Amino acid sequence: MKTKNLLTLCLATLLNAGTALTLFAQDAVPQTKVLTFDRTPQLNPTYQYSTPDNAYLTKLRTSYNLDKVVAGKKTDFDKVKAICGWARKRWEHNGDNTPLKNDPISILEEAATGKQFRCVEYGILVSGALNAIGIPARTLALKMEHTDTIAYGAGHVAAEAYLRDLKKWVMVDGQFDVIPMLQNTPLNAVELQQALSAGAPDLKVVSFSGTKAADYFSWIAPYLFYFDTKLDNRYDVERVLGSIMLVPKGYKNLTIFQKVNPIKNMVYTHSLADFYPEIK
Fold first, then answer.
1. Distance between CA 64 and CA 12 in Å, rounded?
2. pTM given for the model
3. What pLDDT, in 10s, does the model give residues 236-267?
4. Are 154 and 147 in contact (CB under 8 A)?
5. What is the number of domains present in the chain?
6. Is residue 61 within 8 Å of 133, Cβ to Cβ?
7. What is the DSSP string of 197-242?
């Protein structure tokens, strides 16, 4: 398929989702490579999620009053915005600190003592909090094109949430309190990459923290190349090891992260259908 037609198709698939209250428009779209993906399934992977009545998620929801955080929010998107803004306020970003344990409650307990954490922990918290209120979510690892030859700072972690009322995945970046939008439609990470590469003029962000679209898109654009997420997203169980990486067509499978870190337990696909399944 020709590049122009593919970009048109990618952007045309976005659904009209209603206007958000806090929007910051993009002044100039940073140039990024045109990436292409398949739309038909290749692997048909199995994803696993916990329901909100899970004991761990119930504790997270009740201990941190998440029902109050989303009180009065009628749509899934409004709830996601509220959780993203709440998560951003739990601590200030520190790219060098790691928690003793990497689950949402443990991270929040350490943050309450004044500790600060990385983008990874924002992604874990946003994903956990959304699952706790009944919105399926997962952490999302973003990696630069030449991640295997870059020693430091070659990746970023956010989250993605599945909005059942819109039947689509959306990207949620807790570190920056950002959800990317095209006109009035929230985007997933690949849709954001496609919109940036197409030079879409109507890109903007939802942010309750004042993050500007121009600054955010310029920063995030290089990371929108390889996309991976865990297959098992359950809580309070021994998770099955394994992740799936979405690789642009024509590019190699990524097997090394930041020069020296082997990427293990990964399956690879070019398929958007594999990476963005519909959840009932």
1. 39
2. 0.90
3. 999 999 999 999 999 999 999 999 999 999 99
4. yes
5. 1
6. yes
7. HTT-TTEEEE-SS---HHHHHHHHGGG-SEEEEESEE-SSS-PPP-
Domain span holding position 155:
3-275
Is residue 262 domain-resident?
A: yes
In a domain, 88, yes or no: yes
DSSP 37-91: -B-S-SS-PPPEE--TTSHHHHHHHHHTTHHHHTTT--SHHHHHHHHHHHHHTT-
The whole-angstrom separation of Cα 211 and Cα 220 is 12
The token pair at 11 is 């952007």
pLDDT averaged per 10 residues in sequence order, the chain, 280 residues? 34 33 56 93 97 98 98 98 98 95 98 98 98 98 97 97 97 98 97 96 95 96 98 95 98 98 98 97
